[in-house]
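User: I'll paste a sequence; please echo it back and then give the predicted structure.

Assistant: Echoing your sequence first, then the prediction.
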Amino acid sequence: QVQLVESGGGLVQPGGSLRLSCTASGLTFRDYDMGWFRQAPGKEREGVSCINWSGGSTYYADSVKGRFTISRDNAKNTLYLQMNSLKPEDTAMYYCAAGVQVGDDYCSGSRDTNWGQGTQVTVSS
């Protein structure tokens, strides 16, 4: 059974930083393209950043380019999202996903994607 456990969310002031982690079990992590998605109240879920199995290909939503960095440690079965210069509009529930579709200009889930339970990020003064 695939399990994805996110951590690292919380309350941070505008301009601050957070590092999200996602630890995976029940799958061969190195075989999966991974991603971070977010959903704010009243809005659809959006792909924030995705990374392919080797880490050699990444995607970032325009709204986070230059501020967020996705990475993975296949030896630790862990996915990361370093978030800097956070803005109030980054406030959302952030979800880790395994088995995403990633390319130069897209990052999306599918019916076969596995999802974590989410971690809340709130950016507010």
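The chain is about 0% helix and 50% strand. The chain has a mean pLDDT of 96.
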